[in-house]
Amino acid sequence: MTQILSPNANERWNVYGDWRRAASAVPVVLDGETNHIVTRYRDVAKLLNATISTVQPRAGEFPAHIGSGPASIFYRESLPHMDRPEHSRLRSVVMKALNPRTVAGMASWVADIISRALDQIDATGEVDVARVLSAGIPAEVACRMLHISGADTALLFSKVDDLSAIVSHEPLTPEKLQKADEAARFYADFFARHIAALDLGGDDLVSSLVQASRAGAMSESELHTTLMGLFIASYHTTRVSISNAIFAIGTHGDQRDLLIARPDLSEKAWDETLRFMSPVHFVHRYVSERLNLDGVTIEPGQRLLLGLASANRDPEEFDQPDRFLVERGANRHLAFALGAHFCLGAGLSRLEGRVLIHDLVTRFPQFEIAADPVWTGDLSFPFIRELHVRARP
């Protein structure tokens, strides 16, 4: 039976339980469109890797509701919404710029940003870490990575939610589309001026991308869209995961004690957070040819919602999937996806997460969750809006 699915976060449903025990492809109606939710690890992984999987229903076809304004350009030129061959071309440019050596070169200043953020906890004793750490750290990292001055930070981040509406599963009203267009126009103008004012020529991320654009590997519009995408993506998912990590560690005393004794497990703890509380619950895909998924026929043009969160709790893939275990081995979680759209920022995410968890449990080993978290977000991106922590060195 087709089920009616609301994207409203206030009607959150059990992605970790009922859905993963359901059939391989559960038909639902979302915003009047029939979708199939895929919940099991083996099926989600297969579809993420499959050459017949696409992010566009048909080549060059995009949702009509995104319109034709600046926000639609951001949508069309963003890597998450591109298919081969354009996706392969643009992804190779970004991969060369955001390579392991580039990320390793960020380590010292990322650690400094995290240390200064933790100083704010030291000064207050109790703090909303969703604001101070989860929002503050990735915001400063994103700005430093893209050579954006602190004076521009507040204005830039004030537009993030407006532009993000273009990729949300919430209904895109005319008012939201207008704000998304205004935000996209603002970001495009900002990055055009920003690039023109920079003294470029090094081997940093921005210089590498600008050089690639000038060499013809990407258009000027694609350059601006890529910088916009890096700015938003490096902020949003890490923001979500920092709150998730602090909440998971703070509510699992045995695992917190293990991290205190062995802070070298910090990177494993970050990956376990990504599995246990996936920052992105769903990504969409289509198939270019008819697919049979355990008796369910998926036709080309029908949208699939791949459940990353439910797959990451699949008992067929993970032993004791509903336990948060920082020593978990062979953690092949899907939080970064797989295949052609594997997250380009995975290395930076792991750098920030490793340092944050290490320094948090070292400086404040007895921190406590002071109140229940306040959740917000939509079907794909639920996140903690408020998380008050009481710090005790």
From TrEMBL:
Designated name of the protein: Cytochrome P450
Alphabetical list of Gene3D superfamilies matching this protein: Cytochrome P450 (1.10.630.10)
Pfam families: p450
The organism's place on the tree of life at top rank: Bacteria
Annotated InterPro entries: Cyt_P450, Cyt_P450_B, Cyt_P450_sf
A molecular-function term among this protein's GO annotations: oxidoreductase activity, acting on paired donors, with incorporation or reduction of molecular oxygen
Organism: Rhizorhabdus histidinilytica
Family in the record: Belongs to the cytochrome P450 family.
